[in-house]
Design brief:
The complex is a heterodimer of chains A (about 240) and B (about 250).
Chain A lengths: L3 H18 L4 H7 L5 H28 L2 H16 L9 H11 L5 H5 L4 H14 L3 H13 L11 H13 L7 H24 L3 H31 L2
Helix pairs in contact in A: 1-11, 2-11, 3-4, 3-5, 3-7, 3-8, 4-10, 5-10, 7-11, 8-10, 8-11, 9-10
Chain B lengths: L1 H8 L5 H19 L3 H8 L4 H28 L2 H16 L8 H9 L6 H5 L5 H16 L2 H13 L11 H13 L7 H24 L3 H30 L3
Classes of the chains: A mainly alpha (about 240), B mainly alpha (about 250).
């Protein structure tokens, strides 16, 4: 039987393998092979704002169930997302999504009036369901999505980076002007480390590590379904 | 003419009237709480040092339960309300500038005055009746409409707001009890003392949300459901504390 340290390292390596493998799935390949017209980019941007809101719902539930020291980590994490950092001139992430929409020619009202995708709603409820499971599963299910968006962990670039590059290639909008994508390319590197920090302190048993892997695995499954729905939507647009 | 404009704005007989009636009802509920047998009993149990220690340790566990519930409420609330809760949790979870520490640390620090050590808090167990109350609060926070969940967590701070509760909120009354019966000045009971003020601010900031989100009788009923159920659990909780404290020699 290995030591807890070895167990944590093995678990972390497995999580990193899982998030990298995500990009080789049919759903991710399909989404990342689509050319982005302006209208497609606009609709993608709106649906991602709904995704960001769902993340805030899920992190709230995770915070509720987690031990006090982990609640504090999540509270700090949510500052960037919910409030922004005024001293650094950074907006919260919903405001960023709306501002990025303006670069794509969207008015703020489009984010209020465009309905959430049916498949998106379904996936959001699934993520909410996992977020209310025992806390280690719950935190893994939310944190794994940020690991999947960490350019430090994903060999050929995170999802935000890859989408940002497609928009730059197809619409000529450089990544630095896609302020929401650009922010996530940076922030999710930092946020992705949180699970490692939590696991080192709290995942000291095989059962705890299995709970983390279970939450991560199911979340990545929903993530694949969600990305598949996004691809489906984009393909129906001109 | 002005009256007509107010009617159109909903200020007369409209949603403002609903909110004003609602807040008056909530105020009555938190005041009535102190007339209940459970509250009267708890506040009449003579304090000994051991009983005081029990109360302080249980307060830390109560504070942790509050953090759970506010997290759950944050999960289901609209974005704007999430932000209000996040700010609220800044004092509670991270740092309250009134005390230069978070509220859990504050409670542990307060324990020193009655001879408690940090490990007394770490090894503390939830007595069965208290555990049942905490799970019941979790249930409201997780399994209800956000207005119900929000009202439930809010009511415990409203019940601690000395501007609303005649004779002082719970923290103030318990602080005075420590002062009168154990000779420990309220200022030395730093957690109770901070909550005398903090929960005035918190309950007022949080109460503003009702003015923005309660527009219909259905909204009002969701708030009332959370408030009524929370106050029932609060009575059970205070009754439990009284029961356990009385059994400590």
């Amino acid at each position: 039987m290995g030591s807890p340290e070895n167990g944590s390292k093995k678990m972390w390596d497995e999580l990193v393998r899982m998030v990298n493998e995500q990009f080789d799935t049919p759903q991710f390949r399909r989404l990342l092979s689509i050319s982005f017209s302006r209208e497609r980019a606009q609709q993608y941007s709106i649906q991602m704002a709904y995704y960001v809101k769902n993340r805030r719902d899920c992190w709230g539930y995770v915070q509720g169930a987690a031990p006090l020291d982990v609640k504090r980590l999540i509270w700090n994490h949510e500052q960037d997302e919910l409030i922004g950092n005024k001293s650094e001139g950074k907006d919260d992430h919903i405001t960023l999504a709306v501002k990025e929409g303006a670069v794509l020619g969207l008015g703020a009202e489009a984010f209020d009036t465009t309905p959430v995708l049916d498949g998106g709603m379904t996936c959001f409820y699934s993520w909410l369901h996992i977020a209310q499971r025992p806390w280690l599963e719950a935190i893994a299910s939310s944190a794994i999505l940020e690991m999947r968006n960490s350019s430090e962990l994903i060999q050929e670039g995170s999802l935000s980076k890859r989408i940002g590059e497609i928009v730059a290639r197809d619409l000529g909008i450089p990544l630095k002007k896609q302020i929401n994508n650009a922010e996530h390319v940076v922030m999710d590197v930092e946020h992705a480390r949180m699970l490692y920090q939590v696991a080192q302190k709290h995942a000291t048993t095989e059962a705890a590590r299995k709970a983390i892997l279970r939450g991560a695995k199911e979340s990545l499954m929903i993530d694949r379904v969600y990305r598949g729905h996004l691809a489906e939507m984009l393909e129906t647009l001109p | 003419m002005k009256h007509a404009e107010e009617l159109l704005d909903g200020k007369v007989g409209g949603f403002m009237s609903i909110v004003n009636e609602l807040t008056a009802t909530l105020d009555k509920m938190v005041n009535d709480q102190f007339e209940s047998p459970e509250f009267k009993h708890l506040l009449s149990v003579p304090l000994t040092l051991e009983r005081g220690r029990f109360y302080v340790v249980q307060s830390a566990l109560y504070t942790s339960n509050r953090r759970d519930c506010w997290g759950y409420v944050q999960g289901s609330a609209p974005l704007e309300v999430k932000r209000v809760i996040w700010q609220h949790e800044s004092d509670e979870l991270v740092n309250d500038p009134r005390a230069n520490m978070d509220h859990y640390t504050l409670t542990v620090k307060q324990g020193e005055v009655v001879g408690l050590k940090p490990e007394d808090f770490e090894k503390a167990e939830l007595p069965p009746m208290v555990r049942a109350c905490f799970y019941a609060w979790h249930h409201i926070a997780i399994r209800n409409h956000w207005l119900t969940a929000y009202a439930s967590s809010h009511m415990l701070e409203r019940r601690n707001n000395g501007k609303i509760v005649k004779g002082g909120g719970m923290s103030y009354r318990m602080g005075k009890k420590f002062e009168n019966e154990l000779g420990i000045n309220l200022k030395k009971m730093i957690s109770l003392d901070v909550h005398v003020v903090a929960d005035m601010d918190h309950s007022e900031n949080i109460s503003e949300i009702f003015h923005r989100y309660v527009k219909t009788p259905e909204d009002r009923d969701l708030v009332l459901k959370g408030a009524e159920e929370c106050m029932a659990i609060d009575r059970a909780y205070r009754g439990a504390l009284g029961y356990y404290m009385e059994r400590i020699e």
